[in-house]
Amino acid sequence: MSQWEVRLSNSKGLPYFFNQETKESSWDAPPGLSEDEIKQLQGAELLTSGKGSHAGQVRASHLLVKHKDSRRPSSWKESNITRTKEEAIEILRGYQAQINGSPAKFAELATLHSDCSSHSNGGDLGWFGRGQMQKPFEDAAYGLEVGKISDVISSDSGVHLVLRSG
């Protein structure tokens, strides 16, 4: 009988795997367990509540424009960002007009222009839960319907457009 069980993280509200014998924990399924064996684990129902293994999480992309008051005013494109927050918002509004609600255009512009390393994935940040992103960003992502794009959001990182993808 497996020593693994599924528990719910108190801090993130997400399921994780816990080995009662070794006290090891992991977000990912333990190697060597088949899908059927995982389904038999104590607490396995936590894995399928809500949206499968991403219960309570959202998936989002963003297009970030940093400014001189950003937490880290540099990026893959510019080593020293000197624009004002107002200039950053103006730039982002220009992108917003080009995107015009299109997720494909969003990804294209994020790839070319986002000041985040996620630019190489079209701005995709993957799945995340509450408490993992800055509050204004998190609120925007959770507040959007899948496929919708936010208005300009300001965080400590800069100004963003957020596309909820999951």
Structure notes:
- The protein has 166 residues and is an alpha+beta fold.
- The chain folds into two domains: 4-54, Single Sheet (Ubiquitin Ligase Nedd4, Chain: W); 58-164, Chitinase A, domain 3 (Roll), CATH 3.10.50.
- The chain is 25% helix and 21% strand.
- The strands form two sheets. A four-stranded antiparallel sheet has the order 5-4-7-6, sandwiched between helices. A three-stranded antiparallel sheet has the order 1-2-3, with no helix packed on it.
- Strand 2 (15-19) and strand 3 form a beta hairpin.
- The mean pLDDT is 89.
Shape: elongated
Structural class comes to alpha+beta
Order of helices and strands: EEEHEHHEHEE
What is the terminal separation in angstroms? Answer: 35 Å
Radius of gyration: 19 Å
Q: What's the CATH topology label of the largest domain?
A: Chitinase A, domain 3
CATH class of the largest domain: Alpha Beta
Largest sheet: 4 strands, antiparallel
The CATH architecture of the largest domain comes to Roll
